[in-house]
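W.,

You were right to be curious about this one. When I first looked at the sequence I had no strong expectations either way, so I just let the prediction run and decided to look at it fresh. Below is the sequence, 110 residues in total, followed by the output.
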Amino acid sequence: MDKKKIIPSSAEIVEEANKSNPEADINEIHSKTFELIKKYRGEYYKNKVKILLSRDSLSNIPEEIKIKIEKELLKPIKVGDKKYSNFMEETSRRISQTFQGISGNIAELC
C-alpha cells in the first residue's frame, strides 16, 4: 500500500495557495486554503471508501453496486440544520463528539 501523505500540513496548504496566486492578499490566500482543505478532505474520504470496497470480503459484490455504494457514502447530506460533506463525515463527527463528552465525564467521575 502506498504510504503517500493524503493530507498536507497547514504550511504546505498555505504554500500551495500562495503559489496559485503570488500576488494574492491574505484574505484571498485564506479563501484558497479553505478550498484546498475541502479538496483534500474529499480525496481522503474517497480513498477510505475505495479501500473499504476493495476488501476481499466484499469481492462478491458486483462492481456496479460498489459504484452506487461509493456514490451514496460520498454524497453530501443534511441532518437537521447541519450540513456534512458526506455520510462518512457525519458519522465520524457524531461518534467523536459523543465520546469526547462521555470521556470527560468519566474522567471527572474517576
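Here's what jumped out at me. The chain has a mean pLDDT of 90. And, maybe more interesting for your project: Residues 26-53 form the longest helix (28 residues).

Coffee later to discuss?

I.
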